[in-house]
Amino acid sequence: MFDIDQIRADFPLLSQQVNGKPLVYFDNGATSQKPKVVLDAIQKYYTEINANIHRGVHTLSQKATDAYENARNIVQKHINAKHNYEVIFTAGTTHGINAVANGFTKYLQKDDEILISALEHHSNIVPWQMLCERTGALLKVIPINENGELILSDFEKQISNKTKIVAVNHISNALGTINPIKYIIDKAHQFGAAVLIDGAQAVPHLKPDVQELDCDFYVFSGHKMCAPTGVGILYGKEEWLQKLPPYQGGGEMIATVTFNKTTYADLPHKFEAGTPNIEAGIALGTAIEYLNTIGFDAIASYEKDLLEYATTKLLEIEGLKIIGTAQQKASVLSFIIDAIHPYDIGTIIDKMGIAVRTGHHCTQPIMDFFNIPGTVRASFAFYNTKEEIDMLVVALKKAKMMLS
Ligand SMILES: Cc1ncc(COP(=O)(O)O)c(CN[C@@H](CS)C(=O)O)c1O
């Protein structure tokens, strides 16, 4: 186990006050905080090697290029991709999903099927609806049960030779449900379907092994895992990345351009048009090395303990109902208190220094399923503490009294 005081000292932002109270940051599902080593990496980039990459012959450009491509190699090793050119830098999860959905336009036809789940974030729903509009394909949805778990018996009836793509999240951002993605991937491959895994909420908590999973695509955002916003990763199997057309045209992604014809660059640059978010890509590499130094086994064990403690303590609050009670959960607690609107609860406890997310969390279909306007979501990270959870409980009891 790690020294939580040392860990918290790594994060400058955590020591601040909000509304005159110590900040309790429980909105890690929205974005994580950044350790000093990541902030230093950004500063070092801009003060020592800032230059555009891949095209300059001068020393600074070469140094920046080496740092950026080294970050790609760090990501490749982290997710155990077979080749570093299967690791595409994107702007984030949403960008990665859109790039894949756009690429499938040429491969789908009327009545083909795209299978997603009722747990999906809007970023893993809307791009597929847009693909259906472009191609006449049909969107199918794996339902969930009252615990917020996928109903696999329905999935087994839905998957067929008509299914061309299965796109599901690894971990639900709204409920914390950890999905059985290895089973889903293997089953989908039996019917010849490609599988995209939305790993946005997984990468802060675990280390995905894309070869062991055998997924065709795996997407995530840097800002969920201690890296800056504006950078993400699209992992794709080489065979698929070679088949899919580029998502955006422009500089960097070309080999030759004439007015008659353009040929595209080799992987990974075919999917990396324009000047990327260089410092964020480098800082993502730093963030991954920082997390691996702590260790994902230690992070998972600590967060499991936090979740169990928080679940027990919150359930002591009369009228509090947890939404999302899956057997397998990451450290996310969504809940409602009586008929109090989540937004009112979030607003009140913010005055006490506590940051949570309230609302539909970009998963309106989940809220429709539970017939609620939204939830209060507390999402924990390895730098949160049980003392902070105790502060949340006190604040919620005060808010309940004020709002009842
Ligand atoms: C499962 C899942 N899939 C996609 C996204 C989008 O990530 P971007 O970095 O914005 O592209 C998110 C981001 N969820 C944030 C913002 S809504 C949350 O508070 O839950 C996600 O959780």
Automatic annotation (TrEMBL):
Gene3D superfamilies: Aspartate Aminotransferase, domain 1, Type I PLP-dependent aspartate aminotransferase-like (Major domain)
Gene Ontology terms: biological process: cysteine metabolic process
Described function: Catalyzes the removal of elemental sulfur and selenium atoms from L-cysteine, L-cystine, L-selenocysteine, and L-selenocystine to produce L-alanine.
Protein name per Swiss-Prot or TrEMBL: Cysteine desulfurase
Catalytic function, reaction form: (sulfur carrier)-H + L-cysteine = (sulfur carrier)-SH + L-alanine
GO MF terms, alphabetically ordered: cysteine desulfurase activity; lyase activity; pyridoxal phosphate binding
InterPro entries, sorted: Aminotrans_V_dom (IPR000192), Aminotrans_V_PyrdxlP_BS (IPR020578), Cys_dSase_SufS (IPR010970), PyrdxlP-dep_Trfase (IPR015424), PyrdxlP-dep_Trfase_major (IPR015421), PyrdxlP-dep_Trfase_small (IPR015422)
Protein species of origin: Flavobacterium croceum DSM 17960
Listed cofactors: pyridoxal 5'-phosphate
E.C. no: 2.8.1.7
Keyword set, alphabetical order: Lyase, Pyridoxal phosphate, Transferase
Family listed: Belongs to the class-V pyridoxal-phosphate-dependent aminotransferase family. Csd subfamily.
UniProt xrefs under PANTHER family: CYSTEINE DESULFURASE, CYSTEINE DESULFURASE 1, CHLOROPLASTIC
Ranges of residues in domain Aminotransferase class V: 24-392
Pfam families from the UniProt entry: Aminotran_5 (PF00266)
Domain of life: Bacteria
